[in-house]
Amino acid sequence: MKSATHEILKIRLLSDREKAFEQLYQEAFPSVARFVSRMGGSFHDAKDIFQDALIVLYEKVVDDEVTIKVSVPAYVLGIAKHLWGRKFRKDQKNIPLDDMEKDIAIPEDFYAPQDYSHQLLQYLEMAGKKCMEMLQGFYYLKMSMKDIAHSFGFGSVRSATVQKYKCLEKVRQKVKETAYEDHFA
């Protein structure tokens, strides 16, 4: 069963198509233009999508392929959203990665091995002997925080955890300072 909206629209489109389209432009185009703009499209894109949406609507109404259950401007906006999604997928440039690799130049020294362990040792030394030993115990010797608290003379595991955090922050700060100096040197 066709809705009254559908029948009225069909009569208007068949009797005075130009006037019906003008009214649809006034009622529906602003919302389509806002949608296309939010999606990164231009005013020209909005006009193209809207005109395509009107053609789709016209064909569906004339061929009795549609039952409109919302307002006609809302239905046109729905068609426009669908068309925009289709256009966006079609316009995407899909380039196989194999082809793209040919165009990317990788510097010869890019894969050269770098020894960061020496740099890390310097940062740990800057944080202090106690910090270096504590972090070494935790990360390299896999000591528990309970063992670290006992070995370093902390009153509780919580105190040792807080001190480990402070040591890590010292190391992070030294890394940031060095990076800043290297950047502006």
Question: How would you portray this structure in words?
Answer:
The chain is an all-alpha fold and 185 residues long. The protein folds into 2 domains: 4-91, Rna Polymerase Sigma Factor, Chain: A; 116-184, Arc Repressor Mutant, subunit A, CATH 1.10.10. The protein has 9 helices and no strands. It has helices spanning 4-15, 17-38, 43-62, 72-91, 97-103, 116-127, 129-140, 145-151, 157-184. Helix 3 crosses helix 4 (72-91), helix 6 (116-127) crosses helix 7 (129-140) and helix 7 (129-140) crosses helix 9. The N and C termini lie far apart (78 Å).
Task: Give the helices and strands, then pairings.
Blueprint: H1 4-15, H2 17-38, H3 43-62, H4 72-91, H5 97-103, H6 116-127, H7 129-140, H8 145-151, H9 157-184
